[in-house]
Specification:
- The chain has 342 residues and is an all-alpha fold.
- The chain has one domain (54-337).
- The chain has helices at residues 3-73, 78-100, 110-120, 122-130, 137-159, 166-186, 194-218, 222-244, 248-251, 255-284, 286-289, 291-294, 296-307, 314-330.
- Helix 3 runs parallel beside helix 4 (122-130) and helix 5 (137-159) runs antiparallel to helix 13 (296-307).
- The protein starts with a helix and ends in a 12-residue tail after the last helix.
Length: 342
């Protein structure tokens, strides 16, 4: 065989080898692209599910405000709402708490559990639901979460070393402006005692702020803390009402109305809202999930129109929008105004 005959064959062999290597490289690249596409799809699916859980929590929290106001309008007292909330939630969460261990109250601890229950137990709801005896839905739906955010932020800045950056200052100013607008227009001849409701809403918001701070300091799981507070509250409230109180007001309600109140206060607000929000935080992160509580006031006002029959006035709408936007800014829920590392 001549050299001339060997060269083409050698080149052909090299070419074939190169084709094989190129095919392998292209195959690996295709696999990498496929893996990246699958990862992107999984991430998008996770975000979508996280948003669903977050919005579900928003609707359930908003319904709590709406039906707490409706409870006041139908003649129920705060103790009735407290019984529905903790009696039902405690019954639902008791098996979970037993499974996690009653000895240490599901990992919370009895001492800490009692403190948590003091913040988000009957005292919290006594003021939160009781305020609706004096003030309309728009006031409670805005003032409670706004006060909670302001107090929690203040404590975090003063005692936990958080920084007070420009976006947070702007958000706080907007929240204060919204609260002031609603407060100044709230006390009228039609509702001269609205200021009493305002004070009660602020106390309830302060209680919730205390809950969020101790959960953070003690690094408690939100669901575990809720379960501990609900069960401990039920142990006190249910026997207390049965011995010293009355079920007449609840028994006088139409069955459909009673079932709705039980579902909203005991099942949704008492259990499912916290579970849904915890899942949202796990899937989206704290920063993104922080936007959901901020939009609760606006959603509550919208739902209150067909359910409670309350149409907010123009100043109340303006105050709600101002406070809602301020909450979103202060909590870092608006990406354009979020400061990295803050």
């Amino acid at each position: 065989m001549t050299l001339r005959g060997c060269v083409p064959r050698g080149l052909q062999g090299l070419a074939e080898t190169g084709d094989v290597v190129q095919d392998d490289v292209q195959g690996d690249a295709t696999q990498d692209d496929g893996a990246q596409d699958d990862g992107a799809k999984d991430a998008a699916r996770t975000r979508l599910v996280g948003v669903f859980f977050g919005l579900s929590a928003v609707v359930m929290w908003a319904l709590y405000f709406v039906y707490a106001r409706e409870a006041a309008q139908t003649g129920l007292k705060p103790i009735d709402v407290i019984l529905l909330r903790y009696g039902v939630a405690g019954l639902i969460l008791l098996p979970w708490l037993i499974r996690k261990g009653l000895g240490n109250l599901g990992g919370v601890g009895w001492g800490r559990g009692i403190v948590v229950a003091l913040f988000v137990g009957p005292i919290f709801l006594m003021f939160g639901a009781g305020g609706f005896l004096f003030a309309p839905l728009a006031h409670g739906a805005v003032m409670q979460p706004s006060t909670a955010a302001l107090v929690a932020t203040g404590i975090a800045i003063l005692f936990l070393g958080e920084k007070l950056h420009a976006a947070r200052i702007t958000g706080i100013a907007m929240v204060l402006g919204g609260i002031a607008l609603i407060s100044l227009t709230g006390t009228t001849e039609a509702s001269p005692d609205a200021w009493k409701g305002h004070l009660m809403f602020m106390v309830a918001g302060t209680c919730w702020a205390g809950f969020t701070i101790i959960v953070r300091i003690w690094q408690l799981g939100a669901i575990a803390a809720t379960a501990a507070a609900s069960v401990l509250s039920a142990v006190v409230v249910v026997p207390g009402v049965l011995i010293f109180g009355t079920l007449e007001r609840l028994a006088a309600l139409p069955v459909e109305t009673l079932m709705v109140q039980i579902t909203v206060h005991g099942v949704m607000a008492g259990v499912l809202a916290m579970v849904a929000y915890a899942r949202s935080v796990a899937m989206l992160g704290v920063g993104s999930a922080a936007l959901f509580p901020a939009v609760v006031p606006a959603v509550a006002l919208i739902l209150g129109i067909p359910i409670a029959g309350e149409v907010p006035t123009a100043p109340e709408w303006l105050g709600a929008v101002l406070a809602t936007t301020g909450l979103a800014v202060a909590l870092g829920g608006i990406p354009g105004m979020r400061r990295v590392g803050a």
